[in-house]
Automatic annotation (TrEMBL):
Residues 112-123 have a biased composition (Low complexity). It comes from Pandion haliaetus. The gene is Alkbh8. This is ALKB8 protein. GO terms for cellular component: cytoplasm; nucleus. Residues 90-123 are annotated as: Disordered. GO terms for molecular function: S-adenosylmethionine-dependent methyltransferase activity; tRNA (5-carboxymethyluridine(34)-5-O)-methyltransferase activity; tRNA binding. Residues 1-72 form the Methyltransferase type domain. Keywords: Methyltransferase, Transferase. InterPro entries: AlkB_tRNA_MeTrf/Diox, Methyltransf_11, SAM-dependent_MTases_sf.
Length: 239
């Protein structure tokens, strides 16, 4: 059973005869302890505070039965790790940024390619735990005011909190208009006007950060923590 905040994505699942519903990762309408396994891929890095990121993992753990497992993937600050560039960086071609594009109504995540009692869970999400989640050695520029830097696609990150440009493509014309987007060269002013750019928030995780958040919860055990093509990953077991 799948779930997503986007109704359009859920509708696509329905068209493919998959079971899915619309919901928020902070409040999943599934009975506690009813899942053998949960998967959270490229979700938690979209929450803008440490409290909300921790609460999302608490909610994920709530769904699991004792002994159940969860797999979590988040985007990594380190897109070059152990002298190896991630596929995300490698896909930058010809010195020009390859734009991340999405068809209207469909979301493609800009990854390398493109889861007990609720009261006890809430108590785990305390300020005391959050204070223990400080990760040292992360070379990230802090954002001093409310303005977030805009990331240049297919480049390394210079801030943990940023906005990633999303370039829409497809039928963006107004009702009654007939526009052939192929008439204009890619990257031209006319093409950009026909393909709006939106900015999506990301908190990219430093090495050890996701694992530290997970280890702060008494109800789960970290089975494995690893790096995979520009993502930090953790496998959890519900105690």
């Amino acid at each position: 059973v799948g779930c997503d905040r986007s109704k359009n994505l859920v509708d696509i699942c329905g068209e493919k005869n998959f079971q899915a519903f619309v919901c928020d990762a902070l409040s999943v309408p599934i009975r506690s302890g009813s899942c053998d396994a949960c998967i959270s891929i490229a979700v938690i890095h979209h929450f803008s505070t440490a409290e909300r990121r921790l609460a999302t993992i608490c909610e994920l753990a709530r769904l699991l039965r004792p002994g159940g497992t969860a797999l979590i993937y988040v985007w990594a600050m380190e897109q070059e790790y152990k002298a190896q560039k991630s596929k995300y960086l490698k896909e930058k071609k010809g010195g020009k940024d390859k734009k991340e594009e999405i068809n209207i109504g469909r979301a493609q995540r800009p990854l390398s390619d493109q889861m007990s009692d609720s009261g006890s869970q809430d108590s785990a999400c305390s300020d005391r735990l959050l204070n223990d989640l400080k990760v040292e050695g992360c070379d990230a520029k802090s954002v001093a005011d409310s303005r977030l830097p805009v990331h240049t696609n297919r480049t390394s990150f210079h801030s943990q909190d940023l906005l990633v440009p999303w370039h829409l493509k497809g039928d963006t014309k107004k009702k009654g208009e007939s526009i052939d987007t192929g008439l204009f060269p890619a990257g031209s002013k006319e093409s950009q006007e026909l393909s709006p750019v939106f900015h999506r928030y990301y908190h990219v995780f430093c090495e050890g950060e996701l694992e530290a958040v997970c280890r702060s919860l008494d109800c789960v055990r970290v089975q494995k923590s690893y790096y995979d093509q520009g993502n930090w990953c953790v496998i959890l077991e519900k105690l």
